[in-house]
Design brief:
heterodimer, A: alpha/beta, 4-stranded mixed β-sheet, 8 helices, 17% strand, B: mainly alpha, Rna Polymerase Sigma Factor, Chain: A, Arc Repressor Mutant, subunit A, transmembrane (chain A), Anti_sigma_zinc_sf (chain A), Znf_put (chain A), membrane (chain A), Anti-sigma-W factor RsiW (chain A)
């Protein structure tokens, strides 16, 4: 066997083992091996080596491998859990979003009104003094129904048949003055919010309000 | 399987979903561990390399191109890590070394016995240990090609993708690895 012959059949053997040999070369190779014991032995040995590697048992990852990998991951579990939770409880997400929007809109309304102009709801039978910041129900006057005053000091010398609500101000009740209903003062934002909530509740459940009255 | 993998990867990419990633690890852990074990030749390094491969896959999931096979990408990370480890230092452990805290237990005894092979193909445990040792003696480039070809049963084209080498280079590596193994195993 010459060197060139060896190279030639080595290449053919590799092609044969790679499954890439054509019919012609295959016939040539096997014809050659009829007479060349070296090449025949070589093919046997290669096949045996490949068989041994192929049949070496397939091993599995050790127990607890996945847990071990997961424990080494950067910790993002909380974020994921929250996302999953929010996907499973859309109602809570919607409800809390609603509350946030409600509160923030109430705050903005409060901020607009705080320190703003004097406003009076309920009656025209009152004297408003913008410079002094007072609202006076003059003696002898009668306010029919409820009266709500914002951003002012209220002096009651006359009569109110309903309730008086003072938002962001003070009330002064003269001895002659009389308020038939409740007197309510609202100064803090939270109180104001509570007041509004009660209003809304009263609107939503009028029966409850009547019985309270 | 492919559809499942695609869905899992989408979830991991979208929100770093770790539950989806755990499923992915479960699907591929045996193959990745097998490559790492055959490359490094011992259980400790195999566990280390396989785990590191998954952690890198998670960290770099954005760079995975979904038009290509996920296993190819994952195997590339694994083989690169193993080849780097082999080149940087000679392995800490040898299969012949006793495992700490065990009585005379060597790395060989961690090899499971062949299952479901026809009788004439059942290879004894000693023979398997010897085969693994001979694989471990191959230069790492040939070793990777031979493992992917004959143990993971990948095509030349897939191996060329995994190792990022031209197909002809892959073939040459397989031929040389095969030839080296023939000399050591062929006349058993």
């Amino acid at each position: 066997m010459t060197m060139s012959c060896e190279n030639r059949y080595e290449i053919l053997l590799d092609k044969y083992l790679d499954g890439e040999i054509n019919q012609e070369d295959r016939l040539e190779l096997f014809e050659h091996m009829e007479t060349c014991e070296d090449c025949a032995a070589r093919l046997r040995e290669l096949k045996k080596a490949v068989m041994l590697v192929q049949s070496s048992s397939h091993i599995s990852a050790p127990d607890g491998f996945t847990e071990s990998v997961m424990n080494s991951l950067p910790n993002q579990k909380k974020r994921v859990t929250w996302k999953k939770w929010s996907r499973q409880h859309p109602f809570f997400v919607a409800a809390s979003l609603f509350i946030i929007l409600m509160v923030s809109s109430l705050f903005s309304v409060w901020n607009e009104q705080a320190g703003g102009d004097i406003s009076v709801q309920g009656s025209r039978n009152v004297a408003i003094d913008e410079d002094a910041g007072t609202v006076t129900i003059p003696e002898g006057e009668t306010v029919e129904g409820d009266l709500t005053v914002r951003n002012a000091k209220v002096e009651v010398e006359g009569e109110i048949t309903g309730s008086l609500t003072v938002i962001n101000g003070e009330k002064y009740l003269a001895s002659a003055g009389d308020v038939a209903g409740d007197i309510e003062e609202v100064d803090q934002v939270l109180e104001w919010v509570w007041y509004h909530t009660k209003q809304i509740a009263g609107d939503v459940f009028p029966a409850g309000r009547e019985s309270k009255d | 399987m492919d559809a499942v993998v695609k869905r899992l990867i989408k979830e991991i990419k979208k929100e770093g979903d770790q539950d989806a990633f755990a499923e992915l690890v479960d699907l591929y852990k045996d193959k990745v561990y097998q490559i790492a074990y055959r490359m490094t030749g011992n259980g400790y390094e195999a566990q280390d390399m396989a785990q590191e491969a998954f952690l890198r896959a998670y960290a770099n999931i954005e760079s995975y191109d979904e038009s290509r096979k996920f296993s190819t990408w994952l195997f590339r990370i694994t083989t690169n890590l193993c080849i780097d480890r082999i080149r940087k230092k000679k392995p800490d452990y040898s299969l012949d070394a006793e495992i700490q805290g065990t009585d005379g237990l060597t790395g060989y005894s961690q090899l499971a016995a062949s299952q479901n092979l026809p009788e004439d193909q059942v290879v004894t445990l000693e023979l398997q240990e010897w085969v693994q040792q001979e694989i471990s003696l191959l230069p790492e480039k040939y070793r990777a090609a031979v493992i992917l070809r004959y143990i993971e049963d990948l095509s030349i084209t897939e191996i060329s993708d995994v190792l990022d080498l031209p197909e002809n280079t892959v073939k040459t590596h397989i031929h040389r690895g095969r030839e080296a193994l023939r000399k050591r195993l062929g006349n058993a």
